[in-house]
Structure prediction request, 399 residues.
Amino acid sequence: MTPSVSAAGRFAAPISRLGVAACAAFLCVGLGACAAGSEREPKAPEAEADPGDGQVGAPGDTLPPDEGRGEEPADDVPDTGEAPGEAPGTEDPGEEPDEEPDEDEDPPLPPGADLEGRAAERAAAEHLERAEAALRGDTRDVARAMDEAREALTVDEANLRAMLILAWAHYIEDNYDMAEQILDAAGERTAAQDHPRYHFIAGLVYDATDRAERAERAYERAVELAPGYGNALLNLGVHYLENRRYPEAIRVYERLTRGLDDERPAAWTNLGSAYRGRASELEGPRGDPDRRAEYLRRAEQAYERALSRDSDYAPAYYNLGILYLDADPFPGEDGDLETLERLRRADEYFDNYQRTAGADADRAEEQASAVSDLIEREERRIEREERRRERERRREERQ
Prediction:
């Protein structure tokens, strides 16, 4: 857990064919953003990624999934850190009661606990609306949100919405153990197993605690229950990318960007990475050059689409650089690009990446140095070839 878009580097892989180290640290939403890139957001497993930001891998190299992993649940809110069912005390612990309660009398109920039926439902809903409102906008009042969620649980101790808010809040605060305890309690006391957000948050927690297989299953279940759950799709695709399951990643991200019109840069960057990875599988003597070329063009278009949504989206620049650096040959308008032209394009995109706010300075310097060396090597090769041709031309003239 992207990339996105927030973008989350867990993923780093060498570009095997070129012998150049390439990695990207952009992950998905909620888990990457990616990176997406969130990469992920507010913290996610990014997008960004290498075959795409929040993306994963392509031939030879694997970038982290972009923001791409999902973000926070649509209405979920961070909580205060207390477990569901806890309610703030109503008495000052330092004060003594005026008189001892009669042993035959029931103890006093906390405010709201004596409400019944629809009145209790309305009271809980009002608390939860205030909790969620506290988490909207640029500044979040997490403490207020948690207080309101706890108040809702005072009225309805098995309120799933309140429990998910608290679990989400603990996740945001890196309190993964408590988040998981709350989710376990919700699973035992409510219809949580049929609630897509329950599985999405569980996926985030599993991602954060390095249980990738369980995270993938959780996202799959969330999407199964809610086929249009964008953040769950984003994060699920990251797992497919990481495992080089490119056809599945393509289906997920095409569904997200085309079927659901998701215009997040992390989603398009991850789609580009899925295409790039698929192209890598079509290389070699037994490959399909025409299909490979088509997937490379689609990858380029997807990365450019991400930049059309956000011209400062670092993972898209980085992955375009990787695309041109690693894909040899690269299809042009009239045949394959010359090697020097391909490398110069890669250099240009890495340079753009280096100038963006979200760039990793060390990674940018590493790639810039690697591409510069390859360009110099190719220029020397071209010079030798030109001298050889000139010698042959003169030899033919003498004859």
